[in-house]
Amino acid sequence: MKIAISGKGGVGKTTFSSLLIRTLNDMGKKVLAIDADPDANLAAALGIPDADKITPIAEMKEMIFERTGAQPGTIGGFFRLNPKVDDLPDALSVKKEGIKLMRLGSVKKGGGGCLCPESTLLKALVMHIVLARDEVVVMDMEAGIEHLGRATASAVDKLIVVVEPGRRSIDTAENIRRLASEIHLNQIYIVGNKVRGPKDEEFLKKHLSDFEILGFLPYADDLIEADLQGESPYDVESTAKARVKEMVASL
Ligand SMILES: Nc1ncnc2c1ncn2[C@@H]1O[C@H](COP(=O)(O)OP(=O)(O)OP(=O)(O)O)[C@@H](O)[C@H]1O
Ligand SMILES: [Mg+2]
Q1: Which residue's CA is the nearest one to ligand 1's atom 15?
Q2: How far apart are CA 9 and CA 230, in angstroms?
Q3: Strand partners, 160
Q4: Of the bound ligands, which one is closest to the alpha carbon of residue 169?
Q5: How far is residue 86's CA from residue 142's CA, in Å, rounded to a whole number?
Q6: Is the entire prediction scored with pTM above 0.90?
Q7: Which ligand number lies closest to the CA of residue 41?
Q8: Percent helix, strand and coil across the chain, each rounded to 5?
Q9: Buried b / exposed e along 167-194 (16+ C-beta atoms within 10 A)
Q10: Predicted confidence (pLDDT) per residue in 7-45, tens digit
Q11: Closest atom, ligand 1, to C-alpha of 15
């Protein structure tokens, strides 16, 4: 199963992704966790030590040169458009129990659409991961879904959009759905996060009535505290854990 997580900034994508990944791991599944958000730290949320020292793939200059035949940072010119990537998930991931984590990092974009070695490598890698890996894949993405091209979208089984009670995250959900449908990714689910009570739940249900809702996670001070302490939200007791377990069962 290939799952992509998106949503407005700060709604809880990384928190939810980490709970989902650790839950799957505890169920005995092998999980390939992809941190596709340059500003995020999924590794820390998973409880991986020294998470901030993991080098993102986009910054592995020598490897990118070796695989594409061109120096990262160069635009245009000649380089391999189909670099070898199939060994990278095993070679370059950080491991914790049944979880392998890869941090993609970001490509400094120059103008419209970057045709550069590092973005070509990342695209090939994401494509390989969703098309050929047989673990459960969970991708923590930014507010957009630009890592998913037309060719890869068909292999993504589920796009989970995290929302919080608020107008802007709902607008973002609508936008993401529009982008997703353009690349024929139609299995979209909503997770309502930071829900303070029945009123918040009703608000989200009302404004997202034509979405399929996977479930709700309560607003919890313990999750913020975990974040502040650099701990995994999965390692603190919260009802969120039980809720995510139910969601996995219904996926
Ligand atoms: N259910 C919750 N209750 C309370 N706080 C939460 C909850 N979920 C997440 N948070 C807090 O909200 C903040 C943002 O969460 P998180 O980093 O998971 O969001 P994000 O969508 O991944 O953000 P970004 O867009 O920056 O990557 C964190 O401080 C986190 O602890
Ligand atoms: Mg995040």
Answers
A1: 12
A2: 19
A3: 5, 189
A4: 1
A5: 24
A6: yes
A7: 2
A8: 45, 20, 40
A9: eebbebbebbbebbeebebeebbbbbbb
A10: 999 999 999 999 999 999 999 999 999 999 887 789 999
A11: 18
Instruction: Spell 37-51 as b/e; 16+ CB within 10 A means b.
Output: beebbbbbbbbbeeb
Q: What are phi and psi of 142, to 5 degrees?
A: -80, -170
- Ligand 2 centre distance from Cα of residue 70 (Å): 31
Residue 6 bridge partners (DSSP): 161
Tokens encoding 245? 């377990």
Helices (H) and strands (E) in the chain, counts: 10, 8
- The set of protein residues with a Cβ atom below 6 angstroms from ligand 1 is 7, 9-15, 37, 39-40, 193-194, 217, 219-220, 223-224, 227, 240
Q: Which two tokens stand for residue 113?
A: 């659409």
Amino acid identity of 166? G
Of 125-134, 146-155, 193-202, the least confident: 146-155
In this predicted model, what pLDDT tens digit does every residue of 187-201 receive, in sequence order? 999 999 999 999 999
Please say whether the beta carbons of 176 and 145 come within 8 A. yes
Residues 6+ apart with CB under 8 A from 232: 18, 22, 44, 45, 46, 47, 226
Residues 6+ apart with CB under 8 A from 136: 1, 2, 3, 24, 29, 30, 31, 32
